[in-house]
Amino acid sequence: MSWLEELVAGAREDSRRRQQEVPLETLRARLVTRDGARPFNEALVRPGLSLIAEFKRRSPSAGELKPGAGVAETVEAYERGGAAALSILTEERHFGGSVNDLRAAREASDLPILRKDFIVDGYQLYEAAASGADAVLLIVAGLDDERLEALYVEARGLDLDCLLEVHDEADLERALTVGADVIGINNRDLDDFSVDVETTVELLTDVPAGKTVVSESGYARRDQLDELERIGVDAVLVGETLMRAEDPEVQVRELTRDAEATREHYLERASEGE
Q1: Which residue range is the domain that position 169 belongs to?
Q2: How many domains does the chain have?
Q3: Rounded to the nearest 10 degrees, what angle do helices 99-108 and 71-81 cross at?
Q4: CATH at 263
Q5: Cα Rg of the chain, angstroms
Q6: What are 182's strand-pairing partners?
């Protein structure tokens, strides 16, 4: 069994368990009082390269990222630093996340939020909507054609934007067949977790004009983001670099190149004696 197959199988089992704990009807009832959705897709197409800042506790390849990191304080720092949107990793077994992290982020920040997980059934879409997500990640390689289209349609019916993640030409073709508006090109191979940032460069030429493109995985420096902006990528998702940063707000500012705001932040902290 490949890593991706194992992750998908685990997500399916965990979803069934959570359905026993919180029935679907309970989630449907919560949607009645759901706050208005924040336009995730629109946040990615503002001038310049938009930054999606991710909160995740650990990963199979990197282990624990920042022990004791709190969701609220982290996403607040991301927002102050100039992130355009948030990604909250909610997978439990290998990444240590939960929908509770999603709720905490919703309460702490006004930014649109992507639920990043291995979405395999409709229950998870209702979880996402009821817990504060504005968008969900659908990993094309982890779903067959029928399930991919069904989840895409159901998500849109729940007023959730969709980021369809691809890693190769076959994934991209399937995402476009569904009618995806936002394509996430993951530089990480989910079979062995290796990363090659050239994946984005190679696939970008096959993406039709008018689609929003997000590049994922492998970015830590502003010069890398400059290159993405130069070739026409709309947004970039950064996780481990931000989670490991001593000051995530400053790290976001440096990646978004808000030099003046970064200087002001340093001066403010200096005046507070930090």
Answers
A1: 3-271
A2: 1
A3: 50
A4: 3.20.20.70
A5: 18
A6: 212
